[in-house]
Every structure is written in C-alpha cells, then in structure tokens.
Amino acid sequence: MAVTLTEKAAKHVSNYISKRGKGVGLRFGVRTSGCSGMAYTLEFVDEPNPEDVKFDSFGVSVFVDPKSLQFLDGTELDFVREGLNEGFKFNNPNVKDECGCGESFNV
Which of the two ends of the chain, N or C, has the fewest CB atoms closer than 10 A to its terminal CB? Predict the structure, then answer.
C-alpha cells in the first residue's frame, strides 16, 4: 500500500510548510460528499494522529488515516498548472466514476 507525491507536488508542499513556519507534512484523506459519493481532503499536519499511516515522498511526509487508505492506495498526488489555474491533481487508480463537475468520485 502506498500514496505518493510527484516531485513537483512535494516541492509545492515543502515551500508552503516553510512559509507557514510549522508543520510535519500533509494529511490526505476522503470524506463523504458530492453526487458520486466521496471527495478528497488535504490539510497540513502539525502533529500526526497515532493511527495515521505515514508515507514519505521526495522528503515530504504524507499521512493517511486507515479508513481512507483503502480508497487512496496507489494514488499519486501531483501539482499542475493549466493556464491561469493551478492546484493538486489526484491520479487515483481506484476511481471507477467521477461526477461531471469533478468534485467527487466513487470506487
């Protein structure tokens, strides 16, 4: 089981943590939402939860709660720029369907 960041995503997270002045990594998870069932969640971690599963990618720690891991296993998190927009892109091999607006997915 693994969750990874691309080098570009890791650099973006590292820069943000530096600017923030605190933090040990990024928490990645899922929550119930949207028309397809689940949505991704991202937040910076100042202190990991004891049950978190930790992955390291390009020097950045990614923490995933055990309940989310079954839906995120194999996911690569990228940071992309498309025109004037930039943000994280989730390359999740488990996704079977996504809603039309891109807000949610199901596995």
Answer: N
